Amino acid sequence: MTQPGGPAPHSVYVRRRALAIAGGVLAFVLVVWGLGALFSGTTQRDADAVKTGNVDDQPPNHGAPVPAGSSSAAPSGQPSSSAPPSSSAAPSSGAAPSSGAPSSSAPKPPPAPPKPCDPSFLHVLATTDKPSYKLGEQPKLTMSVLNIGGQPCIQDVGHAQRELVISDSGGSRLWGSGDCSFAATKPEKRTMQPGKPITFSVQWAGRTSAPGCPAKRTAVKQGDYQVTAKLGPVPSMPVRFSIT
Fold it and tell me: What is the number of domains present in the chain?
């Protein structure tokens, strides 16, 4: 580098050059200091905004999931928006779902007609209106038929099926209610309801008879007798009475 020449002394040029360099250095320092102060203030404001949650340029959260640890998470005292719905919204467990189907209103079929009575379910009973009679009185004899089964049944109780028979104390037959009866012998079918007896009564004149009703009939004497009722194949127990 050539030394400057001119009327001024060499020392003057040296001082001027030193002042120029010093001024440039000072200006550079001032610029650096100013830039540092500017960036420092901006950084401090951003830090304060993050602490207080008021960052102006922070984008709103429209239902997006919030990362764990973020300052925008809901406080512990408030319910989270992702909590399950209240149990009151659920249908009651005791409420039965309505099928909506109409109930069946079809009429029930009529019951089947009664069947013929089983003889083992028929009970036949013979009775007298008094235990003892005077000679010449006409005892009233009664026959009862009872259905002891659990269902109604049909039974022929016509004259051809029922009979009252009187025997002496030794068991000899003396009289029968059908011996001299000329009533129609056509069937007489009746519905026998369980537990409801059907009864038939006849007066005995105190004379003997026989099947076919022979003309010779004699009056019975004083003594012990018994009456038995019979419906078809079903007999009753004999019932004793006396004539005095």
Answer: 2
Q: 239-244: list long-range contacts, CB under 8 Å, 24+ apart.
A: 239/126, 239/127, 239/128, 240/131, 241/128, 241/130, 241/131, 241/132, 241/133, 241/139, 242/131, 242/132, 242/133, 243/132, 243/133, 243/134, 243/135, 243/137, 243/206, 244/132, 244/133, 244/134, 244/135
Domain membership of residue 83 (yes or no) is: no
Report the percentage of the chain scoring pLDDT > 70: 65
For residue 220, give both structure tokens. 């019975």
Note whether 134 and 225 are same-domain residues.
Answer: yes
The pLDDT value given to residue 27: 77
With cut-offs at 50, 70 and 90, classify the pLDDT of residue 87: very low
- Asked, for residue 186, whether it belongs to a domain, the answer is yes
**156 DSSP assignment:** E
Q: What is the dihedral of CA 169, 172, 175, 179, to 10 degrees?
A: 160
The reply to whether 80 falls in a domain is: no
Q: Is there a single domain that holds both residue 44 and residue 141?
A: no
Residues 47 and 139 in one domain: no
Digit-coded pLDDT (tens) for 17-66: 777 787 777 777 787 777 766 656 555 555 555 454 444 445 445 444 44
Q: Is residue 66 part of a domain?
A: no
